Amino acid sequence: MKLFTRIFLPIALFVYITIETYMKLHHTSLCDATGCKLAGELLRFKSIYLNYIGLLGTLLLALFGGLSLRNERFKYYFQTLLFGALAFETTLFSYQVASNPEPCVFCMGVLGSLFIIALLEARHNLLLPISIAGAISISIATLGIFQNQSVLVQKGLYLIYSDTCPHCKKVKKYFAQHHIDYTSLSVVDPSARAVLKYFDIDKIPVLIDKNTHNYNVIVGDSAIIKHFDHENLAHSAVSNTPSKDILTSPSSIPNIFRSNEDEGCSISFDITPSCTSEGDKNTL
């Protein structure tokens, strides 16, 4: 049992994290949930570094676990690292669930694996891992944490706009004239701003076409209108699918198209957006 708990399971978790790390480095992931993408905005650094920390942690777990089979002193190091990792992952996961509408499947796998190892390691004191995970989860749940909303749930068109942006008004007027169905997302909504930050976009209007496998993003009123003025206008208006000048691929990498004229209102992620009709140079 010790061999299984202290060596096999940590190595299995290391392989699991390695697969996710490889996929993430190639712009895909085991979890494609919108909430997972928004969860990345909670970090102060790139999420890939959490994978590296996980790889190092699981390697150390397996190392200390193997050494503990010969020297009982290393059991203390193994358990200290294990319960610390459990507390760390529980904190991250609990905060993610509290602030996002859907948890990350990959994070659930990591937390579940650590919890199973902890239960097996502390089988004579099951209350220890349960109390660690439970206390952290309850403490996070009692905080008044702002919750992002999953704004890109269904396939279709999403327009991120501001009521004071003349470029946004131009696009909305065009959509109304051509009977194009879309979902409006005000840029004052923190969830919409999280989406813009995720795509690294600092101007509006932004049109997001959510497909099965990826996102096609068009920035600027002239680029958006030009897209729908294409020869496949009728098909785009009815089915909400991109015309042939918008590329699609079975990848999670967003295709981002920007207006050559750079027509749009600049936004700041620090203050509430506002924009006048004086032109492109207005900042928010």
What would the keywords be for this entry?
284 residues; 5-stranded mixed beta sheet; alpha/beta; 7 strands; two-stranded antiparallel sheet; elongated
Structure, briefly:
This protein is of the alpha/beta class. 52% of the residues lie in helices and 10% in strands.
- The arrangement of helices and strands along the chain is HHHHHHEHEHEEEHHEE
- State the distance separating the first and last CA atoms: 60 Å
Oligomeric status: single chain
User: Helix content range of the residues, please?
Assistant: 40-55%
Low-confidence stretches: 236-254, 269-274, 276-284
Q: How big is the Rg?
A: 24 Å
Number of helices: 10
Mean pLDDT: 78
Q: Would you count the extended β strands for me?
A: 7
Task: Determine the structural class based on helices, strands and strand pairing.
Answer: alpha/beta
Structural write-up:
By secondary structure, the protein is α/β, with parallel strands linked by helices. About 50% of the residues lie in helices and about 10% in strands. The chain is built from ten helices and seven strands. Strands 2-1-4-5-6 form a five-stranded mixed sheet, sandwiched between helices. Mean pLDDT is about 80; it is low at about 235-255, about 270-275 and about 275-284.
List the helices and strands and how they pair.
Blueprint: H1 2-25, H2 34-39, H3 48-68, H4 73-99, H5 105-121, H6 127-141, E1 156-161, H7 166-177, E2 183-186, H8 190-199, E3 203-204, E4 206-210, E5 215-219, H9 221-228, H10 233-239, E6 255-258, E7 265-266
Parallel strand pairs: 1-2, 5-6
Antiparallel strand pairs: 1-4, 3-7, 4-5
Helix pairs in contact: 1-3, 1-5, 3-4, 4-5, 4-6, 7-9
